[in-house]
Amino acid sequence: MKLEFIRTQLSEPKILKDLATLVEDPHALIPQSEEEFYELHKFGLYPTEDCQPFITKQGTPFYSLDNMSVLPLGQEERWMRYGDFRFRQIEILYNMVRMDSVEAHNWLKDNLFQQRVDSRKKQEYKAKFRPFHRPDWKKIQTEWMKYCLNLKYRDNPLFRKDLLSTTKIPVEDATATNYASNLFWGARLVEVGGRKFYFGCNVLGKLQAQLRETKGKLQYTLPDDLHLFGKPILAI
Fold first, then answer.
1. Alpha-carbon distance 96 to 143, whole Å?
2. pLDDT tens across 214-233, in order?
3. Angle at Cα 140 formed by Cα 89 and Cα 118, nearest 5°?
4. Is the CB of residue 54 less than 8 Å from the CB of residue 61?
5. Has residue 180 got a pLDDT over 80?
6. 8 A C-beta contact, residue 93 and residue 82
7. What is the CA radius of gyration of the chain?
8. pLDDT tens sequence across 81-134
9. What is d(CA 23, CA 138) in angstroms, rounded to the nearest whole number?
10. Are the beta carbons of 229 and 107 closer than 8 angstroms?
11. pLDDT tens per residue across span 183-205
């Protein structure tokens, strides 16, 4: 029943089209058995009682787990850091390297709204520097996310505290969103056979679960030419 539900959901052309903006082959996300539900890049159905959901809204439980969560203004000494660059939201660092351009990195650094990336700035960044978009981004985005999560674990004590306070599977709750692509990083609430599950790949949540197990030392592999501000990626 569960596999049939997933395959039916992923037979919708719109969902596959949206997922194609994130991955090279959306069909590769479809599990062939229930054992594959928990593989990093496979869709799954996760019982709600096993999950710790979080959303992008300040003041909500486990808000710090969201990539869009922000550290307090006026406390720059407590912000995350990459070299001498200080920032209060990991989404900034994640988005920077999608463009293979020093100019693009500096533009995003200098055009942040209160040191965070809102959706408008993110779209402006993508549009302005589209010619510099890394052609291998779909292949490397998960590896780069691992790097970003390691850094967040190192620099963000509230994130560490929340992550270590639960043994459940973190889930970026995409129930209230209309973007099928959110089902790659997160999952949405559904009912199957009279039970409630979270449906999605939940890649971010799975990575956070691995981060918790490794105490902030996710193994990653990045291409040699990946850079920030014109210099090789710093070791964490």
1. 14
2. 999 999 999 999 999 999 99
3. 25
4. yes
5. no
6. yes
7. 18
8. 999 999 999 999 999 999 999 999 999 999 988 888 888 888 899 999 999 999
9. 5
10. no
11. 999 999 999 999 999 999 999 99
Q: Catalogue all structural domains in the chain, each as residue range(s) with its CATH number.
A: 2-23+45-232 (1.10.357.40)
Cα 190 from Cα 188, distance rounded (Å): 6
Among residues 234, 171, 179, the alpha carbon closest in space to that of 44 is found at 171
C-alpha–C-alpha distance, residues 216 and 151, integer Å: 8
DSSP state of 236: -
* Amino acid present at 60: T
Please give the Cα distance from 55 to 68 (Å, whole number): 9
- Name the residue among 204, 156, 157, 159 with its Cα closest to residue 181: 204
Mean pLDDT calculated for residue range 12-30: 93
The token pair at 176 is: 């209230």
Residue type for 176, please? A
**β 227-228/231-232 pair status:** antiparallel
